[in-house]
Amino acid sequence: MTSTLTISALTKRFGEVAALTGVSLSVAPGERVALLGHNGAGKSTLMKIILGLIPATSGEVTICDATPGSQAARRSVAYLPENAAFHPALTGLEQIRHYLALRGEDQSQAMPLLEKVGLAQAARRRIGTYSKGMRQRVGLAQALIGHPRLLVLDEPTSGLDPVSRREFYALLDDLAAHGASILLSSHALTEVEARTDRIVILSKGRLVAEGSLPDLRRCADLPVALHVTARNGYASDIARALPGAILVNGALHLTCPQSHKLQALSLIAGLGDKVADLEVLPPSLEDLYAHFSQQAAQ
Amino acid sequence: MIRILSTARTEFRIALRNRWVAIAMVLMAVFSLVLSMAGSSPTGGLGVDRLSVTVASLTSLSVYLIPLLALLMSFDAIAGETERGTMSLLLAYPIARWEILVGKLLAHLTILSLAVVLGHGLAAGVALSKDETSLAGLPAMLRLSWSSVLLGATFLGAGYALSSLSRRPSGAAGLAIGLWLGLVVLYDLVLLSVIVADNGGWFTTQAFPVALLANPADAFRLFNLTASGATAAAAGVGGAADAIPLWQSLASVLLWPLAALALAAAAFRKVTP
Description:
The complex is a heterodimer. Chain A is an alpha/beta fold. Chain A has 11 helices and 13 strands. In chain A, α3 packs across α4. The two termini of chain A are about 35 Å apart. Chain B is mostly helical. Chain B is globular, with a radius of gyration of 20 Å. At the A-B interface, α2, β5 and α3 of A face α1 and α6 of B.
Protein backbone atom coordinates (compact mmCIF):
# COMPACT_ATOMS: atom_id res chain seq x y z
CA MET A 1 0.00 0.00 0.00
CA THR A 2 1.33 3.47 -0.84
CA SER A 3 1.84 5.92 2.00
CA THR A 4 -0.40 8.91 2.59
CA LEU A 5 2.54 10.92 3.86
CA THR A 6 6.18 10.40 2.96
CA ILE A 7 8.99 12.50 4.35
CA SER A 8 12.57 11.87 3.32
CA ALA A 9 15.75 13.49 4.64
CA LEU A 10 13.88 16.63 5.65
CA THR A 11 16.02 19.49 6.95
CA LYS A 12 14.85 22.90 8.06
CA ARG A 13 17.12 25.72 9.16
CA PHE A 14 16.15 29.10 10.56
CA GLY A 15 19.33 31.03 9.85
CA GLU A 16 22.05 29.24 11.82
CA VAL A 17 19.61 27.22 13.91
CA ALA A 18 18.76 23.73 12.67
CA ALA A 19 15.13 23.07 13.55
CA LEU A 20 14.97 19.70 11.77
CA THR A 21 17.85 17.55 10.59
CA GLY A 22 17.46 14.62 8.19
CA VAL A 23 14.01 13.50 9.32
CA SER A 24 12.49 10.61 7.36
CA LEU A 25 9.07 9.23 8.09
CA SER A 26 6.12 7.69 6.34
CA VAL A 27 2.52 7.26 7.42
CA ALA A 28 0.31 4.62 5.82
CA PRO A 29 -3.46 4.95 5.26
CA GLY A 30 -5.34 4.19 8.46
CA GLU A 31 -2.24 4.51 10.61
CA ARG A 32 -2.19 6.60 13.78
CA VAL A 33 1.23 8.04 14.54
CA ALA A 34 2.16 10.02 17.64
CA LEU A 35 4.90 12.61 17.48
CA LEU A 36 6.65 13.12 20.81
CA GLY A 37 9.30 15.59 21.83
CA HIS A 38 10.17 18.37 24.24
CA ASN A 39 9.05 21.90 23.50
CA GLY A 40 11.25 23.11 20.68
CA ALA A 41 12.07 19.59 19.47
CA GLY A 42 10.70 20.47 16.01
CA LYS A 43 7.20 18.95 16.15
CA SER A 44 5.33 22.10 15.15
CA THR A 45 7.93 22.97 12.51
CA LEU A 46 7.54 19.49 11.01
CA MET A 47 3.77 19.93 10.94
CA LYS A 48 3.98 23.36 9.31
CA ILE A 49 6.21 21.97 6.57
CA ILE A 50 3.77 19.12 5.97
CA LEU A 51 0.98 21.68 5.65
CA GLY A 52 3.01 23.81 3.26
CA LEU A 53 2.94 26.81 5.61
CA ILE A 54 6.73 27.08 5.60
CA PRO A 55 9.19 25.71 3.03
CA ALA A 56 11.76 23.04 3.85
CA THR A 57 15.45 23.84 3.49
CA SER A 58 16.10 20.45 1.89
CA GLY A 59 14.54 17.02 1.64
CA GLU A 60 11.25 15.92 0.21
CA VAL A 61 7.67 15.69 1.45
CA THR A 62 4.75 14.20 -0.47
CA ILE A 63 1.13 13.98 0.63
CA CYS A 64 -1.09 11.72 -1.48
CA ASP A 65 1.35 12.21 -4.40
CA ALA A 66 1.15 16.01 -4.12
CA THR A 67 3.59 18.59 -2.79
CA PRO A 68 2.79 20.34 0.51
CA GLY A 69 0.78 23.53 0.09
CA SER A 70 -0.52 22.58 -3.36
CA GLN A 71 -4.25 22.77 -3.90
CA ALA A 72 -4.48 18.96 -4.09
CA ALA A 73 -2.53 18.51 -0.85
CA ARG A 74 -4.54 21.15 1.02
CA ARG A 75 -7.76 19.48 -0.06
CA SER A 76 -6.73 16.15 1.45
CA VAL A 77 -5.19 17.42 4.69
CA ALA A 78 -7.02 18.62 7.79
CA TYR A 79 -5.18 20.54 10.47
CA LEU A 80 -5.78 21.39 14.09
CA PRO A 81 -3.37 24.05 15.31
CA GLU A 82 -2.23 24.24 18.90
CA ASN A 83 -4.38 26.65 20.95
CA ALA A 84 -6.52 27.94 18.11
CA ALA A 85 -8.84 30.67 19.40
CA PHE A 86 -11.56 31.39 16.90
CA HIS A 87 -13.12 34.83 16.54
CA PRO A 88 -15.04 35.55 19.76
CA ALA A 89 -17.80 37.43 17.91
CA LEU A 90 -18.88 34.39 15.85
CA THR A 91 -20.97 31.48 17.06
CA GLY A 92 -19.65 27.94 16.79
CA LEU A 93 -22.22 27.20 14.10
CA GLU A 94 -21.23 30.24 12.00
CA GLN A 95 -17.56 29.38 12.29
CA ILE A 96 -18.06 25.79 11.14
CA ARG A 97 -20.37 26.88 8.30
CA HIS A 98 -17.61 29.18 7.10
CA TYR A 99 -15.02 26.39 7.19
CA LEU A 100 -17.43 24.10 5.33
CA ALA A 101 -17.80 26.75 2.62
CA LEU A 102 -14.02 27.09 2.34
CA ARG A 103 -13.78 23.35 1.65
CA GLY A 104 -16.67 23.54 -0.82
CA GLU A 105 -18.83 21.31 1.38
CA ASP A 106 -22.54 21.59 2.12
CA GLN A 107 -23.06 24.06 4.97
CA SER A 108 -25.96 22.06 6.39
CA GLN A 109 -23.38 19.60 7.74
CA ALA A 110 -22.37 22.13 10.39
CA MET A 111 -24.86 21.01 13.01
CA PRO A 112 -24.14 17.25 12.67
CA LEU A 113 -20.41 18.02 12.95
CA LEU A 114 -20.95 20.02 16.13
CA GLU A 115 -23.11 17.22 17.50
CA LYS A 116 -20.29 14.81 16.79
CA VAL A 117 -17.92 16.77 19.03
CA GLY A 118 -20.59 17.41 21.68
CA LEU A 119 -21.14 21.10 21.00
CA ALA A 120 -24.72 20.99 19.72
CA GLN A 121 -26.06 22.72 22.84
CA ALA A 122 -23.65 25.65 22.52
CA ALA A 123 -23.74 25.89 18.71
CA ARG A 124 -25.63 29.17 18.65
CA ARG A 125 -23.60 30.83 21.39
CA ARG A 126 -20.67 33.09 20.62
CA ILE A 127 -17.24 31.49 20.79
CA GLY A 128 -16.22 34.30 23.15
CA THR A 129 -18.32 32.59 25.83
CA TYR A 130 -16.73 29.14 25.28
CA SER A 131 -14.29 27.45 27.64
CA LYS A 132 -10.87 26.37 26.34
CA GLY A 133 -12.09 22.80 25.96
CA MET A 134 -15.09 23.95 23.93
CA ARG A 135 -12.90 26.01 21.62
CA GLN A 136 -10.74 22.92 21.15
CA ARG A 137 -13.87 21.03 20.10
CA VAL A 138 -14.65 23.68 17.48
CA GLY A 139 -11.14 23.00 16.19
CA LEU A 140 -11.82 19.27 16.13
CA ALA A 141 -15.13 19.77 14.33
CA GLN A 142 -13.43 21.72 11.52
CA ALA A 143 -10.75 19.04 11.24
CA LEU A 144 -13.48 16.45 10.55
CA ILE A 145 -14.89 18.40 7.57
CA GLY A 146 -14.99 16.45 4.32
CA HIS A 147 -13.05 13.23 4.27
CA PRO A 148 -9.44 14.22 4.94
CA ARG A 149 -6.87 11.60 3.94
CA LEU A 150 -4.42 12.97 6.51
CA LEU A 151 -5.13 14.69 9.81
CA VAL A 152 -2.34 16.76 11.32
CA LEU A 153 -3.22 17.48 14.95
CA ASP A 154 -1.02 19.65 17.15
CA GLU A 155 -1.70 18.89 20.83
CA PRO A 156 -5.32 17.95 20.05
CA THR A 157 -6.35 16.93 23.55
CA SER A 158 -4.93 19.89 25.48
CA GLY A 159 -7.72 21.48 27.48
CA LEU A 160 -10.00 18.44 27.21
CA ASP A 161 -11.17 16.57 30.30
CA PRO A 162 -10.55 12.79 30.54
CA VAL A 163 -14.03 11.84 29.28
CA SER A 164 -13.73 14.20 26.28
CA ARG A 165 -10.29 12.79 25.53
CA ARG A 166 -11.72 9.29 25.37
CA GLU A 167 -14.48 10.50 23.03
CA PHE A 168 -11.91 12.28 20.92
CA TYR A 169 -9.78 9.16 20.49
CA ALA A 170 -12.91 7.19 19.63
CA LEU A 171 -13.51 9.69 16.80
CA LEU A 172 -9.93 9.20 15.63
CA ASP A 173 -10.28 5.41 15.70
CA ASP A 174 -13.36 5.75 13.53
CA LEU A 175 -11.54 7.98 11.02
CA ALA A 176 -8.53 5.66 10.94
CA ALA A 177 -10.81 2.67 10.38
CA HIS A 178 -12.06 4.46 7.26
CA GLY A 179 -8.52 4.87 5.96
CA ALA A 180 -7.51 8.32 7.20
CA SER A 181 -3.93 8.71 8.38
CA ILE A 182 -3.37 10.57 11.61
CA LEU A 183 -0.27 12.38 12.78
CA LEU A 184 -0.65 13.92 16.22
CA SER A 185 1.61 15.46 18.78
CA SER A 186 0.94 15.21 22.46
CA HIS A 187 2.45 15.69 25.87
CA ALA A 188 0.04 13.28 27.51
CA LEU A 189 2.13 10.16 27.01
CA THR A 190 -0.23 7.72 28.71
CA GLU A 191 -3.09 8.41 26.31
CA VAL A 192 -0.80 8.19 23.28
CA GLU A 193 0.47 4.85 24.57
CA ALA A 194 -2.91 3.18 24.24
CA ARG A 195 -4.33 4.99 21.25
CA THR A 196 -1.71 5.06 18.52
CA ASP A 197 -0.12 2.47 16.28
CA ARG A 198 3.31 3.99 16.13
CA ILE A 199 5.39 6.45 18.12
CA VAL A 200 8.01 8.81 16.75
CA ILE A 201 10.35 10.60 19.13
CA LEU A 202 11.98 13.84 18.03
CA SER A 203 14.81 15.41 19.96
CA LYS A 204 16.50 18.65 18.93
CA GLY A 205 15.20 18.26 15.39
CA ARG A 206 16.38 14.69 14.93
CA LEU A 207 14.29 11.56 14.81
CA VAL A 208 15.77 9.49 17.65
CA ALA A 209 13.34 6.58 17.85
CA GLU A 210 10.43 5.21 15.87
CA GLY A 211 8.24 2.16 16.23
CA SER A 212 5.37 0.58 18.11
CA LEU A 213 5.54 0.60 21.90
CA PRO A 214 6.80 -3.03 22.13
CA ASP A 215 9.43 -2.21 19.46
CA LEU A 216 10.65 0.77 21.44
CA ARG A 217 10.76 -1.27 24.65
CA ARG A 218 12.86 -3.94 22.99
CA CYS A 219 15.15 -1.37 21.49
CA ALA A 220 15.65 0.63 24.70
CA ASP A 221 16.21 -2.53 26.80
CA LEU A 222 15.22 -0.74 30.00
CA PRO A 223 14.92 -2.81 33.18
CA VAL A 224 11.55 -4.37 34.09
CA ALA A 225 10.17 -3.70 37.56
CA LEU A 226 8.65 -6.56 39.59
CA HIS A 227 6.55 -5.89 42.68
CA VAL A 228 6.16 -8.93 44.93
CA THR A 229 3.70 -8.94 47.82
CA ALA A 230 4.57 -11.50 50.48
CA ARG A 231 2.09 -13.46 52.61
CA ASN A 232 2.16 -12.41 56.25
CA GLY A 233 5.51 -13.17 57.83
CA TYR A 234 7.29 -14.36 54.70
CA ALA A 235 8.69 -10.99 53.61
CA SER A 236 12.15 -11.64 54.98
CA ASP A 237 12.24 -15.14 53.42
CA ILE A 238 11.43 -13.67 50.04
CA ALA A 239 13.94 -10.85 50.46
CA ARG A 240 16.63 -13.48 51.08
CA ALA A 241 15.59 -15.42 47.97
CA LEU A 242 15.59 -12.33 45.77
CA PRO A 243 18.90 -10.49 46.16
CA GLY A 244 18.63 -6.80 45.33
CA ALA A 245 14.96 -6.51 46.29
CA ILE A 246 13.98 -3.62 48.55
CA LEU A 247 10.97 -3.42 50.84
CA VAL A 248 8.57 -0.57 50.01
CA ASN A 249 5.22 -0.31 51.84
CA GLY A 250 5.14 -4.04 52.58
CA ALA A 251 5.94 -5.05 48.98
CA LEU A 252 9.30 -6.09 47.61
CA HIS A 253 10.47 -4.07 44.63
CA LEU A 254 12.88 -5.67 42.25
CA THR A 255 14.24 -4.62 38.87
CA CYS A 256 15.91 -6.82 36.28
CA PRO A 257 17.01 -6.48 32.64
CA GLN A 258 14.57 -7.58 29.93
CA SER A 259 16.66 -10.64 29.20
CA HIS A 260 16.44 -11.85 32.82
CA LYS A 261 12.73 -11.28 33.18
CA LEU A 262 11.65 -14.92 32.71
CA GLN A 263 14.42 -16.17 35.00
CA ALA A 264 13.25 -13.82 37.75
CA LEU A 265 9.64 -14.86 37.23
CA SER A 266 10.45 -18.56 37.58
CA LEU A 267 12.44 -17.79 40.72
CA ILE A 268 9.42 -16.01 42.22
CA ALA A 269 7.08 -18.77 41.09
CA GLY A 270 9.36 -21.22 42.93
CA LEU A 271 8.60 -19.46 46.20
CA GLY A 272 5.10 -20.92 46.01
CA ASP A 273 2.66 -20.03 48.80
CA LYS A 274 4.90 -17.39 50.32
CA VAL A 275 3.93 -15.00 47.51
CA ALA A 276 0.50 -13.36 47.76
CA ASP A 277 0.66 -11.29 44.57
CA LEU A 278 3.01 -10.35 41.75
CA GLU A 279 2.95 -7.35 39.42
CA VAL A 280 5.17 -7.00 36.35
CA LEU A 281 5.66 -3.39 35.26
CA PRO A 282 7.22 -2.90 31.83
CA PRO A 283 9.01 0.44 31.28
CA SER A 284 6.40 3.16 30.67
CA LEU A 285 6.41 5.46 27.69
CA GLU A 286 7.66 8.19 30.04
CA ASP A 287 10.72 6.04 30.82
CA LEU A 288 11.29 5.27 27.13
CA TYR A 289 10.87 8.89 26.17
CA ALA A 290 13.36 10.02 28.81
CA HIS A 291 15.76 7.26 27.74
CA PHE A 292 15.73 8.15 24.02
CA SER A 293 15.87 11.89 24.65
CA GLN A 294 18.88 11.53 26.95
CA GLN A 295 20.59 9.11 24.61
CA ALA A 296 20.22 11.65 21.79
CA ALA A 297 21.56 14.43 23.95
CA GLN A 298 24.80 12.56 24.65
CA MET B 1 -16.19 32.49 -5.54
CA ILE B 2 -17.99 30.65 -2.73
CA ARG B 3 -14.83 30.95 -0.63
CA ILE B 4 -14.59 34.71 -1.20
CA LEU B 5 -18.28 35.27 -0.47
CA SER B 6 -18.16 33.16 2.68
CA THR B 7 -15.11 35.10 3.88
CA ALA B 8 -16.89 38.39 3.14
CA ARG B 9 -20.06 37.26 4.91
CA THR B 10 -18.09 36.17 7.98
CA GLU B 11 -16.12 39.44 8.09
CA PHE B 12 -19.30 41.48 7.70
CA ARG B 13 -20.89 39.60 10.57
CA ILE B 14 -17.83 40.22 12.76
CA ALA B 15 -17.90 43.95 11.91
CA LEU B 16 -21.61 44.07 12.65
CA ARG B 17 -21.11 42.48 16.08
CA ASN B 18 -18.08 44.65 16.84
CA ARG B 19 -20.32 47.67 16.16
CA TRP B 20 -18.09 48.86 13.31
CA VAL B 21 -21.05 49.04 10.97
CA ALA B 22 -23.02 51.13 13.46
CA ILE B 23 -20.05 53.38 14.29
CA ALA B 24 -19.26 54.07 10.62
CA MET B 25 -22.89 54.80 9.71
CA VAL B 26 -23.60 56.99 12.72
CA LEU B 27 -20.38 58.99 12.28
CA MET B 28 -21.02 59.65 8.60
CA ALA B 29 -24.69 60.46 9.17
CA VAL B 30 -24.08 62.85 12.06
CA PHE B 31 -21.20 64.73 10.42
CA SER B 32 -22.98 64.98 7.07
CA LEU B 33 -26.13 66.33 8.68
CA VAL B 34 -24.22 68.85 10.77
CA LEU B 35 -22.27 70.06 7.73
CA SER B 36 -25.32 70.34 5.48
CA MET B 37 -27.21 72.30 8.14
CA ALA B 38 -24.30 74.58 9.00
CA GLY B 39 -23.34 74.96 5.35
CA SER B 40 -26.21 77.38 4.80
CA SER B 41 -24.64 80.53 6.18
CA PRO B 42 -21.89 81.22 3.60
CA THR B 43 -23.99 80.46 0.48
CA GLY B 44 -25.45 83.89 -0.06
CA GLY B 45 -22.41 85.69 -1.34
CA LEU B 46 -20.83 82.88 -3.32
CA GLY B 47 -23.54 82.44 -5.88
CA VAL B 48 -23.41 78.64 -5.80
CA ASP B 49 -26.18 76.27 -4.84
CA ARG B 50 -26.43 74.87 -1.39
CA LEU B 51 -25.51 71.28 -2.28
CA SER B 52 -22.28 72.32 -4.00
CA VAL B 53 -21.19 74.05 -0.83
CA THR B 54 -22.13 71.00 1.20
CA VAL B 55 -20.01 68.89 -1.17
CA ALA B 56 -17.01 71.14 -0.54
CA SER B 57 -17.48 70.79 3.23
CA LEU B 58 -18.06 67.05 2.97
CA THR B 59 -14.86 66.70 0.92
CA SER B 60 -12.84 68.19 3.75
CA LEU B 61 -14.60 65.95 6.24
CA SER B 62 -14.16 62.77 4.16
CA VAL B 63 -10.43 63.36 3.82
CA TYR B 64 -10.16 62.83 7.58
CA LEU B 65 -12.99 60.45 8.32
CA ILE B 66 -12.87 57.89 5.50
CA PRO B 67 -9.16 56.98 5.92
CA LEU B 68 -9.65 56.74 9.69
CA LEU B 69 -12.65 54.41 9.38
CA ALA B 70 -10.88 52.30 6.76
CA LEU B 71 -7.74 51.92 8.88
CA LEU B 72 -9.72 51.14 12.03
CA MET B 73 -11.58 48.35 10.23
CA SER B 74 -8.53 46.85 8.53
CA PHE B 75 -5.68 46.92 11.05
CA ASP B 76 -6.83 43.72 12.77
CA ALA B 77 -7.56 41.80 9.56
CA ILE B 78 -4.30 39.84 9.31
CA ALA B 79 -2.49 40.43 12.62
CA GLY B 80 -5.62 39.49 14.58
CA GLU B 81 -5.89 36.10 12.88
CA THR B 82 -2.18 35.51 13.34
CA GLU B 83 -2.44 36.25 17.05
CA ARG B 84 -5.52 34.08 17.55
CA GLY B 85 -3.71 31.21 15.83
CA THR B 86 -6.36 30.87 13.13
CA MET B 87 -4.14 32.17 10.33
CA SER B 88 -2.12 28.96 10.09
CA LEU B 89 -5.39 27.03 9.98
CA LEU B 90 -6.86 29.29 7.30
CA LEU B 91 -3.74 28.99 5.16
CA ALA B 92 -3.92 25.19 5.44
CA TYR B 93 -7.37 25.36 3.83
CA PRO B 94 -7.74 25.19 0.05
CA ILE B 95 -8.14 28.97 -0.21
CA ALA B 96 -5.64 31.26 -1.94
CA ARG B 97 -4.21 34.22 -0.07
CA TRP B 98 -5.66 36.69 -2.55
CA GLU B 99 -9.10 35.16 -1.99
CA ILE B 100 -8.80 35.81 1.76
CA LEU B 101 -7.81 39.42 1.08
CA VAL B 102 -10.55 40.03 -1.49
CA GLY B 103 -13.16 38.51 0.86
CA LYS B 104 -12.18 40.84 3.69
CA LEU B 105 -11.99 43.82 1.33
CA LEU B 106 -15.46 43.09 0.00
CA ALA B 107 -16.95 43.13 3.50
CA HIS B 108 -15.14 46.26 4.68
CA LEU B 109 -15.81 48.14 1.44
CA THR B 110 -19.51 47.30 1.69
CA ILE B 111 -19.64 48.79 5.18
CA LEU B 112 -17.83 51.96 4.05
CA SER B 113 -20.11 52.28 1.03
CA LEU B 114 -23.20 51.94 3.21
CA ALA B 115 -21.90 54.66 5.51
CA VAL B 116 -21.01 56.94 2.59
CA VAL B 117 -24.37 56.45 0.87
CA LEU B 118 -26.24 57.08 4.11
CA GLY B 119 -24.25 60.21 5.02
CA HIS B 120 -24.26 61.73 1.56
CA GLY B 121 -27.89 60.82 1.00
CA LEU B 122 -28.92 62.64 4.16
CA ALA B 123 -26.82 65.68 3.26
CA ALA B 124 -28.27 65.78 -0.24
CA GLY B 125 -31.78 65.43 1.16
CA VAL B 126 -31.30 68.36 3.52
CA ALA B 127 -29.82 70.56 0.76
CA LEU B 128 -32.54 69.72 -1.73
CA SER B 129 -35.33 70.33 0.74
CA LYS B 130 -34.06 73.84 1.51
CA ASP B 131 -32.83 74.95 -1.91
CA GLU B 132 -34.34 73.74 -5.19
CA THR B 133 -31.36 74.86 -7.26
CA SER B 134 -29.33 72.25 -5.39
CA LEU B 135 -30.04 69.75 -8.17
CA ALA B 136 -27.09 71.38 -9.94
CA GLY B 137 -24.81 70.04 -7.23
CA LEU B 138 -25.95 66.43 -7.59
CA PRO B 139 -23.22 65.31 -10.03
CA ALA B 140 -20.60 66.70 -7.64
CA MET B 141 -22.22 64.76 -4.80
CA LEU B 142 -22.18 61.49 -6.77
CA ARG B 143 -18.54 62.09 -7.70
CA LEU B 144 -17.72 62.65 -4.05
CA SER B 145 -19.48 59.40 -3.11
CA TRP B 146 -17.66 57.10 -5.51
CA SER B 147 -14.31 58.77 -4.95
CA SER B 148 -14.87 58.38 -1.17
CA VAL B 149 -15.33 54.64 -1.66
CA LEU B 150 -12.10 54.52 -3.70
CA LEU B 151 -10.30 56.51 -0.99
CA GLY B 152 -11.63 53.96 1.50
CA ALA B 153 -10.31 51.10 -0.64
CA THR B 154 -6.87 52.74 -0.70
CA PHE B 155 -6.68 52.96 3.07
CA LEU B 156 -8.17 49.50 3.55
CA GLY B 157 -5.34 48.18 1.37
CA ALA B 158 -2.81 50.17 3.38
CA GLY B 159 -4.36 48.82 6.60
CA TYR B 160 -4.07 45.20 5.39
CA ALA B 161 -0.45 45.82 4.41
CA LEU B 162 0.38 47.21 7.86
CA SER B 163 -1.57 44.38 9.49
CA SER B 164 0.53 41.86 7.54
CA LEU B 165 3.79 43.56 8.47
CA SER B 166 3.16 43.57 12.23
CA ARG B 167 3.04 40.47 14.36
CA ARG B 168 0.41 41.80 16.76
CA PRO B 169 -2.84 43.74 16.38
CA SER B 170 -1.59 46.36 18.87
CA GLY B 171 1.45 47.00 16.67
CA ALA B 172 -0.75 47.19 13.60
CA ALA B 173 -3.04 49.69 15.34
CA GLY B 174 -0.06 51.90 16.17
CA LEU B 175 1.17 51.79 12.58
CA ALA B 176 -2.32 52.55 11.27
CA ILE B 177 -2.74 55.62 13.47
CA GLY B 178 0.78 56.70 12.50
CA LEU B 179 -0.09 56.38 8.81
CA TRP B 180 -3.30 58.36 9.27
CA LEU B 181 -1.53 61.14 11.14
CA GLY B 182 1.28 61.18 8.63
CA LEU B 183 -0.72 61.21 5.39
CA VAL B 184 -3.82 63.09 6.44
CA VAL B 185 -2.62 65.59 9.03
CA LEU B 186 1.15 66.13 9.01
CA TYR B 187 1.73 65.79 5.27
CA ASP B 188 -0.17 69.00 4.45
CA LEU B 189 1.42 70.89 7.32
CA VAL B 190 4.90 69.94 6.13
CA LEU B 191 4.06 70.91 2.54
CA LEU B 192 2.71 74.27 3.63
CA SER B 193 5.71 75.07 5.77
CA VAL B 194 8.10 74.10 2.95
CA ILE B 195 6.16 76.34 0.54
CA VAL B 196 6.41 79.24 2.93
CA ALA B 197 10.16 78.70 3.29
CA ASP B 198 10.58 78.15 -0.47
CA ASN B 199 8.89 81.48 -1.31
CA GLY B 200 7.74 80.66 -4.84
CA GLY B 201 10.87 78.75 -5.91
CA TRP B 202 11.39 75.34 -7.53
CA PHE B 203 9.57 73.38 -4.85
CA THR B 204 6.38 75.41 -5.14
CA THR B 205 6.19 75.24 -8.93
CA GLN B 206 7.61 71.78 -9.67
CA ALA B 207 7.60 69.46 -6.64
CA PHE B 208 4.46 70.64 -4.87
CA PRO B 209 1.90 69.42 -7.45
CA VAL B 210 3.62 66.03 -7.61
CA ALA B 211 3.68 65.84 -3.80
CA LEU B 212 -0.07 66.49 -3.69
CA LEU B 213 -0.82 63.83 -6.32
CA ALA B 214 1.41 61.32 -4.52
CA ASN B 215 -0.76 61.47 -1.41
CA PRO B 216 -4.10 59.67 -1.93
CA ALA B 217 -5.90 61.92 0.55
CA ASP B 218 -4.68 65.11 -1.11
CA ALA B 219 -5.41 63.74 -4.58
CA PHE B 220 -8.96 62.94 -3.45
CA ARG B 221 -9.48 66.46 -2.18
CA LEU B 222 -7.96 68.01 -5.31
CA PHE B 223 -10.07 65.86 -7.59
CA ASN B 224 -13.35 66.75 -5.93
CA LEU B 225 -12.59 70.45 -5.59
CA THR B 226 -11.32 70.81 -9.16
CA ALA B 227 -14.19 68.83 -10.64
CA SER B 228 -16.88 70.80 -8.83
CA GLY B 229 -15.16 74.11 -9.33
CA ALA B 230 -15.53 74.70 -5.64
CA THR B 231 -12.01 75.90 -5.05
CA ALA B 232 -13.42 79.20 -3.91
CA ALA B 233 -14.95 77.46 -0.93
CA ALA B 234 -11.77 75.59 -0.10
CA ALA B 235 -8.93 76.72 2.04
CA GLY B 236 -5.35 75.61 2.71
CA VAL B 237 -3.75 73.05 0.44
CA GLY B 238 -7.08 72.67 -1.37
CA GLY B 239 -6.52 76.12 -2.79
CA ALA B 240 -3.90 74.62 -5.10
CA ALA B 241 -6.63 72.75 -6.96
CA ASP B 242 -6.64 75.26 -9.81
CA ALA B 243 -3.02 74.58 -10.69
CA ILE B 244 -3.33 70.84 -11.31
CA PRO B 245 -5.29 69.42 -14.28
CA LEU B 246 -8.30 67.30 -13.45
CA TRP B 247 -7.06 64.21 -15.29
CA GLN B 248 -3.99 64.04 -13.07
CA SER B 249 -5.91 64.01 -9.79
CA LEU B 250 -8.44 61.59 -11.33
CA ALA B 251 -5.60 59.24 -12.29
CA SER B 252 -4.25 59.38 -8.75
CA VAL B 253 -7.70 58.67 -7.27
CA LEU B 254 -8.13 55.67 -9.59
CA LEU B 255 -4.61 54.26 -9.31
CA TRP B 256 -4.08 54.49 -5.56
CA PRO B 257 -6.61 51.77 -4.62
CA LEU B 258 -4.92 49.37 -7.04
CA ALA B 259 -1.46 50.26 -5.75
CA ALA B 260 -2.51 49.91 -2.10
CA LEU B 261 -4.15 46.55 -2.70
CA ALA B 262 -1.10 45.31 -4.61
CA LEU B 263 0.99 46.40 -1.63
CA ALA B 264 -1.35 44.54 0.73
CA ALA B 265 -1.14 41.37 -1.40
CA ALA B 266 2.67 41.58 -1.48
CA ALA B 267 2.88 42.07 2.30
CA PHE B 268 0.38 39.29 3.00
CA ARG B 269 2.32 36.89 0.77
CA LYS B 270 5.31 37.28 3.09
CA VAL B 271 3.32 36.37 6.22
CA THR B 272 4.44 33.03 7.67
CA PRO B 273 2.15 31.90 10.47
